[in-house]
Design a protein that fits this description.
By secondary structure, the chain is an alpha+beta fold. It is 33% helix and 24% strand. The chain has one domain: Gcn5-related N-acetyltransferase (GNAT) (Aminopeptidase). A hairpin with a 5-residue loop joins β2 and β3. α2 crosses α3. It starts with a strand and ends in a 30-residue tail after the last strand.
């Protein structure tokens, strides 16, 4: 389901719980992230989705917004990529900030439905996200992003405050009906697709 900013704020404690379970972060870091998430809802093009179970419990959520200079994540990535990548990826870009599903609910297609619904109304020309490096064949998250046509923009990057290496992945928008794209050279900017914007979940 689509969430307004007020919905996310009203369920912020549940959002942080799901985030913590999915990412394995410490309680101290989660409190810091709680403040960051609350601040994000006022940014341009903010868009959020959520999944509730039959009891009304939050089992997954995702959100993002227009990526621009002056935002922490945007500036970290901008400073780490080549100039041509800055122009090709960080111009008119929607950042998928968070996309998480409780571990107990993973493997049911929830992440794919959330990603499709999150990106469906986006007006930007491309989207970026970051995810911890992992074995692509074993990681549900990586298999999901590859199925949606995300390609490598930056690999093995360390964001300040996190010891794990991350990958920054991107794809052109709108989504295609098949969520697939031809293989791309690492760091290359794929051509925009002519397929219509996706309006249905996985």
């Amino acid at each position: 389901m689509r969430w307004h900013a007020s919905d996310l704020l009203r369920h912020l404690d549940d959002v942080i719980t799901v985030y913590g379970e999915a990412m394995g972060y410490s309680p101290d870091l989660l409190q810091t992230r709680k403040g960051c998430i609350a601040a994000h809802v006022g940014l341009a093009s903010f868009n959020a989705v959520a999944t509730l179970d039959e009891t009304g419990q939050l089992v997954g959520f995702g959100y993002g917004y227009h990526s621009t200079a002056g935002q922490w994540w945007h500036d970290q990535v901008r400073n780490a990529v080549r100039r041509d990548q800055r122009i090709g990826w960080l111009t008119n870009c929607f950042e998928v900030v968070e996309l998480h599903v409780r571990p107990a609910a993973q493997g049911q297609g929830i992440g794919g439905r959330q990603l499709a619904e999150l990106l469906a109304p986006v007006g930007e020309s491309r989207t970026l996200l970051s995810t911890p490096e992992a074995d692509e064949s074993a990681s549900r998250a990586w298999r999901l992003y590859r199925r949606f046509g995300f390609v490598d923009v930056l690999r093995r990057f360390h964001f300040p405050g996190d010891d794990r290496p991350f990958a920054v992945l991107g794809r052109q928008l709108p989504l295609s009906a098949t969520h697939t794209a031809p293989p791309q050279t690492a760091g290359a900017v794929p051509r925009p697709e002519a397929s219509p914007r996706l309006r249905w979940p996985l």
